Amino acid sequence: MKDLDDILEIAAGYQVSKSLFAAVEFNVFNSLSGKGKTIKQLSSELKLPKRSLFRLLGVCTACGLLKKKDGKYYNSKAAERFLVENKPGYIGDFCKANNNFLYNSWGKIEEIIKSDKFHSVFGGKGDTIDRVAIDPKIVRVSHKAQHNYSINPAKELAEKFDFSKYKDLLDLGGGSGILSIMAVKKYPHLTATVFDFTPVCEIAKEIIAEHGVEDRVRTCPGNIIKDEFPKGADLILISGILDGYDEEGCYAMIKKAYDYLPKGGGIILKESIIDDGRTGPLFPAIFSLALLIETRGGDSRSRGEMSGWLKKAGFTGIKFTPLHEISGSYRALGIVTAKKA
Ligand SMILES: C[S@@+](CC[C@H](N)C(=O)[O-])C[C@H]1O[C@@H](n2cnc3c(N)ncnc32)[C@H](O)[C@@H]1O
C-alpha cells in the first residue's frame, strides 16, 4: 500500500465495477462496435435519458473503456475486443453474472464473515455447485459467464500443454466444454469427454456442435464425486473444480483420478493460483473470499497444496506452468501437471 490515492481508488472500486456492469447491461459497447456515436444518438438508440447516460459514459471514458473525439464516443481497443457480444473474447456475460448474482451477496460480506457460513447467491437452499446441478435456468446464465471466462485460458492451455502424448481426455466438470474443444481443435488425433451434471452437458453439447467437433468431443452426464468416471481416458483435466471443494474433497478427487488412470497417464490441474502464504495475488485472494460466500468448503488453491495432493496420491513429474500470455496475468492462472508412472 502506497498512499492516500491508492486507498481512495480501492474505496471507489465498487462504483467503477458497477459502472462497467451498467454499461454492459445497457449495451453501450455493442452499440459502439465499429463506429463512433454522439450522446444524442446513443441516448435515442439505447432509450436512456441523455443526462444520466452522459455521466455513465463519463466514468467509462475516465477509466479507459471508451474514448471521446469530436463529440463522438468510441470503444477502446480492449472494449471492442472483450465487451462486444459475439466477439471471440467476449466477457460481458461474466460481467452480467457478477452484476446479477454476486454483487448483492458481496453487499452482505460482513454478515457472511461473521456467520462463517456460505450464502446462496442464487436464492433458495444450496451452494453454487448444488444449484448448478439442479436448476437449468441458473445453469444457462452461469455457464454463459463461465464460458466467457474460460475461452482465453482454453486457447492458452491448448498452446502450452503437449497433448500429443495422449489419446483421450477426460474433462472433469468440463462445463461448456471449451477446454476440450480447443484441445481437440489443436490436436486432430485427440478425443475428449466432458463429464458434468446433466443440465451443463446440454449446454456443452450446443457449444461442441457450434465448434463442429461433435465427432471428437462427447458429453457424459454424471456426478464426478459419486459416479464412476467414463472409461478409456489416458489424461484427466480438472479445471476450476478444486476451488469449489474442501481439502478432503480435492484430495479424494485427485486420488480417484490416480486410481482410474492407466500407467503413463497424465493429469492437469488448472486454477487461479494463490500464493502458499495466501497473501496474493489480488484476484485469487478476492476469489477466496468469493468462494467463502458461494461454496461450503471451496477456496483458492495454491501450487503447494495441489502439488502435495498429487504427490500423496502417487503422481510423479509434478510441474507448474503459468497461463499468463493469452489469459492475461491478473487472474494468476496456471496449471500443475503430473504423471502416473
Ligand atoms: C467453475 S466451472 C469450470 C468449468 C470448466 N472446467 C472450465 O474450466 O471452464 C465448475 C464446473 O464443475 C462442475 N461440477 C462441480 N462439481 C461437480 C460434480 N460433483 N459433478 C459434476 N460436475 C461438477 C460444475 O457443474 C461446473 O460446470
What can you tell me about this protein's structure?
The chain has 341 residues and is an alpha/beta fold. It has 15 helices and ten strands. The chain folds into two domains: 4-82, Orthogonal Bundle (Arc Repressor Mutant, subunit A), CATH 1.10.10.10; 92-339, Vaccinia Virus protein VP39 (Rossmann fold). Strands 3, 4, 5, 6, 7, 8, 9 and 10 form an eight-stranded mixed sheet that branches. Helix 13 packs across helix 15. It binds S-adenosylmethionine (SAM). The site of S-adenosylmethionine has 19 residues, from helix 9, helix 10 and helix 11.
Question: What average pLDDT do the residues reach?
Answer: 95
Question: Helix proportion of residues, in percent?
Answer: 40-55%
Give the count of structural domains: 2
Percent of residues in beta strands?
Answer: 15-25%
- Number of helical elements: 15
**Largest sheet geometry:** 8 strands, mixed
- Return the CATH architecture of the largest domain: 3-Layer(aba) Sandwich
- The name of the CATH topology of the largest domain is Rossmann fold
User: Which kinds of small molecule does this entry bind, naming each only once?
Assistant: S-adenosylmethionine
Coarse structural class: alpha/beta
Unreliable parts: none
Radius of gyration: 21 Å
| Morphology | globular
* CATH homology-level superfamily of the largest domain: Vaccinia Virus protein VP39
Q: Under the CATH scheme, which class of the largest domain?
A: Alpha Beta
H/E element order: HHHHHEEHHHHHEHEHEEHEHEHEE
Q: What is the number of beta strands?
A: 10
N→C terminal distance: 46 Å
